[in-house]
Amino acid sequence: MQWTLNYEETWLHRLNPAFKLIFFLVLFLLLLFIHNPNMITNVTVVPLLLLLFSTGHQKKVLLILILPFLLLFFSSASSMMFFGQGSTTWWKWGLIHITEESFYRGLHIGFRALNFALLGLLFALTTRPVYLFYSLIQQLKVPPRFAYSFMAAVRILPVMVEEFQQLRAALLIRGVKKKKGIGRITQTVTLYAVPLLSQSIRRAHRIAVAMEAKRFNNKERTYYYKPSFSKFDLIFLLYIAIGFGLAFWMSGAFPYFDITDVRQK
Amino acid sequence: MKVGVSNLRLKFAGAPSLLFEDLSLHIEEGEKVLFLGPSGCGKSTLLQVLAGLIPNAVPVPMKADETVICESTGVVFQDPDAQFCMPYVDEEIAFVLENRAVLQEEMKGLIQFYLKKVGLSFQNPHIEISTLSQGMKQRLAIASMIALEPEVIMLDEPTALLDPEGTSEVWSTIKKIEAKQTMIIVEHKIDEIIDFVDRIVLFNSEGAIIADTDPSTMFSFYKHKLKEYGIWYPEVWEEHMKEIASLQGTRRGKEVLSVTNLKGYRGKNPKIEVPSITVCEGEWVAITGENGAGKSSLLLSLMNVMKTSGEKKVSNNVLKTVHDSRNQLAFVFQNPELQFITNSVYEELAYSLKMMNDSNVDEKVTAWLTSYQLEHVKSLHPYQLSTGQKRRLSVGTALFGSQPVLLLDEPTFGQDAQNTFQLLQLFEELRAKGMIIIMVTHDEKIVKHYATRQWVIEEGLLVSDRNLERVVEGNAHAMDS
């Protein structure tokens, strides 16, 4: 079974992974301080363009991955719109109460969630875990024993999925009767968790012993991959800075909404 | 002495007694030593002590007057899926080179060098390990072991989980490694390495050394022990066939299982296609073919666990759902542990009966416990059983009703000789009573000696279906087909 997506490597893959991680975290924080709905609407275009044209993944795959995040956009926006507070009522029906303030706040929250999602997706689609860990060790001085343990754990995951499928078939064939109500949850947990965990714990132990046998230790080591900084890191930095700058300017020059700060009463 | 221990005492937490009591073993430089013994006698544990993994990596309380451990030891373990920590072939060998602090510029060349040594030459070694066959994975494990440039090589049942083809691949690779190397091997299947080792140490089930000598002496004086301990020595099959005197020849009873235009799908693509086939009472079908050819898919399609099209019938009952199938076909999985759902051996056997509201559960279960030789462990958790016992229990749980067909997915895989023969005898008894045995296997000896019919599967198609003449010592039986 195929577990990895086929993709072409693009300039985004060549960014330094540790730099990318920190830069994205900073962007996440920055997004929290944007209160102008005009601004955040414009900002969304910045990661969207990269996601659509620079990840090297197939359009079909991208579309499937974006769908759940659009749902997230609508659900977070609508819940804020319908039940938020405000003074200028537009529409009221039972519990639902849409005001001008809550509408813009909802829209704002929705775009913020969408931005988080797009950036997260961008990071996940253009970063190989192995490179990320090598970069964390070398640039951020994460102890190798943690980083390599994580890499080993990533390797176990597909095996677990395969085992889960076998287990499901086995339980079907044994004809396990499903219990009703709460009992069903505990039954499912014991039927699946016990065998899957016992197999994984043993496998993890074996891998750990095998790693020790290959003389993995805390002594000095060299690295097969040496992630460094390149011009792409600078390009990326500039792209984001210019993108955010343009978004800011546009929100002032060509606003869509009258409200410029959703926190205002 | 290159490696060795004197008066080793070792005990696992919770075990009632010492695993080793004053055990001493010395191995000289350049020796090739084979450890033999029944499963659970502590061979692998001793290997880990000699490799320096116990007590450093695996904390087990132990005491010894003297332990000599070679700093530069390389180990290959049993499980091909549990010895790599990186996803790609080149990265895995690089991991070893990194541990040795080899300069990064030299790594690419060295990776190719070590891969070539084990006969794995890829143009670009950046290949996912999960796409390799089990035999190739073990050769990769050997490559990363020799990338340590070890003075002592230790092999802990490196072929136990491989098919015959993978086993040969692994041993021919190991034999190519420099002859001067000190080697310690733990193994159950010894026909391919018997000429390669120059010393055999035999352990009994209490973890004591009962013999320590060269191979030919071992075979002349301790053969009965090898047999008792379930070791696959060269003539074990011939002796087994002599012992069981005669297998009944094939006798074709009435037609039971019939399949028409069966296709089993995974997603939209058919994984297996069988145009039309019938199987009669008392037949023993061996399904053979390469890994991933669709052997297991065929069994799963019969069970309706996979999406299927076409028709399956067992004595006029059409099998449309999993429920229909399990009433007619007993299914035994490759990994018995996935099949267990209760907390004791007794409960496990009683489970299906209780579900059918059978009136004399106790009587039936007691009878089964006796016939599967599990009565002394009936209150244990299934996971606590030995591999042979687990396998027998999984057969027992599958055969709860009066299903006329038994489907087995590599039931003898990874079992020792004694367990294998015991299982085969059990299946033969069932077959003689008229049950149909359909078994996926890689073992040519089983096909040759026990099967009465062979299906070969290639790339999802049944390409050959032939009746076999059972090879019986002395007189060959004629077939009436």
TrEMBL record, chain A:
It holds the Pfam family CbiQ. It is a multi-pass membrane protein. The keyword Transmembrane applies. Keywords: Membrane, Transmembrane, Transmembrane helix. CDD domains: EcfT. GO terms for cellular component: plasma membrane. The chain crosses the membrane at residues 21-41, 61-83, 113-134, 234-257. It comes from the Bacteria. This is Energy-coupling factor transporter transmembrane protein EcfT. It comes from Guptibacillus hwajinpoensis.
TrEMBL record, chain B:
GO terms for cellular component: ATP-binding cassette (ABC) transporter complex. It comes from the Bacteria. Its main location: membrane. Residues 3-231, 257-481 form the ABC transporter domain. The keyword NAD does not apply. InterPro entries: AAA+_ATPase, ABC_transporter-like_ATP-bd, ABC_transporter-like_CS, ABC_transpr_CbiO/EcfA_su, ECF_ABC_transporter_ATP-bd, P-loop_NTPase. Belongs to the ABC transporter superfamily. This is ABC transporter ATP-binding protein. It comes from Guptibacillus hwajinpoensis.
